[in-house]
Amino acid sequence: WDAEKAYALYPEAVNTKLAYGLSKIDKGDYTTALGTLSGINSGLIENARLYNFSFLYFFVPFPSDEEQLKLGKAIAYAKLGRINEAVAFIPEDDRISQLPPLNKDYQKLSQVLNQIAQAHEEKAFNFQRNGDLKSALGEYTVAIAFNSDENKSKELKNNLFNLVHQLPGLPPIDENTRKHMIRAGVLLTGNDLQGSLNEYKKALKLAPYLPKLYFNAAMVYGELKYYDKAISYMKSYIDLASEAPNLQEAKDEITKWELLQEKSGKTGL
Known about the structure:
By secondary structure, this protein is mainly alpha-helical. The protein has helices at residues 3-9, 14-26, 30-38, 42-45, 67-79, 83-87, 93-96, 100-129, 133-146, 150-166, 175-189, 193-206, 211-223, 227-240, 247-264, and strands spanning 49-53, 59-63. A hairpin with a 5-residue loop joins β1 and β2 (59-63).
């Protein structure tokens, strides 16, 4: 069935709304896409029979959840230039990896994200070359948020970290980042480790240059016993905060996690 025909016949059905919204993304009508996708009640998706959208406008049924809806919103917001809103809807790579059918679809649509990331990386390079380090920092932040290639992500973060060391000081923490940090702290106090980690990761999408976010996320990963992630995030903290007074503490945590990882053999999500 054609996406538009299906939507015309069943405009209130979750699956047809989703397919129609994604078809509009493919056709470049991002305003209609966002309006359609925003009209989907995410609470209904968990029990719905969704359909994988192909670029030929046919549907292949598979069971899924709200991750595809998030992805569609992320792309629509990004294409409309509403970057901060888009970042909030980018599905986590570790969540996608648990859903093979969606992973296939994600790989197709992630090309859009990578194109956005590349464009902002080029802008960052040009700003940095011209000495506008503050603007370069903002562009690298967006590039990292939208990039979906692991190797490229490491390269972008290295570039960002090197840039941070050239700055006379970090920019003030914006309200959205602060909100996620506060939420993370409250959830951590309530022993909701996964919830706290999710908030720290959201904050990192908005401010991947803040050392304490890596430190805090590393400590939560450690408590969750995902030692490889804990080690990785703590190494990022050390790279960013090379003169922090607690560097030895951070290095000691890595030593502890390396031992616990050897004993448990558990890797992170």
